[in-house]
Amino acid sequence: MSTTAERRLGPPDCGFRNPESGIRLVFVLGVALLLAFSACAADEDLVAARNAVHDKLYPVAETHAEAYLKGVSDRPVGGVEALQLLLQALAEQHRYGEVLARLDAWSAMANAAPDAGTFAFWRALGLLGTGKPRECITVAEAAIARTTSSENADALQR
User: Fold this and answer.
1) Whole-angstrom distance, CA of residue 50 vs CA of residue 44
2) Which are the contacts of 65, defined by CB distance < 8 A and separation ≥ 6?
3) How far is CA 31 from CA 22, 45, 61, 132, in A?
4) Residue 136 pLDDT > 80, yes or no?
5) CB-neighbour burial class of residue 83 (10 A; exposed 0-12, middle 13-18, buried 19+)
6) What band does 39 get if pLDDT is binned at 50, 70 and 90?
7) What pLDDT, on the 0 to 100 scale, is given for residue 112?
8) For position 68, what pLDDT does the model report?
C-alpha cells in the first residue's frame, strides 16, 4: 500500500491536535447548553402563566409571568404576551393599582407592542378601577383615535 492509501484508511482527522482545542470545544458546548436550558425555563414560565390564566389561577399566573418578564427584560418585544397575562391576572384579582404600577414598571414592554391599543385597555381599566373615570375615558379615546386593531378598539369602547 502506498502512504496516501494508508492515510485514507486511518482514523479521520478530528482537529484535536492539541488538548486546548478540545477544552475550548467542551467550554463552548457547555455555554450553548446553559443558554438553551435557560431559554427553555423562560418558555416554561410563559406556558405556565398562559395555563394558569386559562384555569383562573391568577396568583400562579402572576408569579410565572413576572419570572418570564425578568428573563426577557433585554428584549421588550419578547415580553408583550407575558405582560398581557400579568395584567389580566392582576385585573381579575381586582388589583387595579398594581395594574397601573406594572404598566409603568414594564413600560419598555408595553411600548414594544405592535398595536398601540394593546396596553391602553389595561391602563384604562386600571384607571377606572382606581376611581379615575375621566382619565380612563381620556386614555381610551386617545387609543381609539390612533391606529388600533378592531379587537382593541372594541374592548376600549366598552
Assistant:
1) 10
2) 45, 46, 49, 82, 83, 85, 86, 89
3) 14, 21, 30, 50
4) yes
5) buried
6) very low
7) 84
8) 93
How far apart (Å, rounded) are the C-alpha atoms in residues 77 and 55? 26
Query: Number of helices (H) and strands (E), helices first, in the chain?
Result: 9, 0
Better pLDDT: 149 or 131? 131
Q: 112 near 148, Cβ under 8 Å?
A: no
pLDDT for 108: 87
- Grid cell for residue 125: 381599566
C-alpha cell at 85: 397575562
C-alpha cell read off for 28: 463552548
Distance of CA 124 to the CA centre of its chain: 22
Cα within 13 Å of Cα(63), Cβ side: 7
- All three cell numbers of 12, joined, read 479521520
What single-letter amino acid sits at 26? V
Q: How sure is the predictor about 29, in pLDDT bands with cuts at 50, 70 and 90?
A: low
Q: How far is CA 110 from CA 12, 17, 33, 72, in A?
A: 54, 52, 31, 13
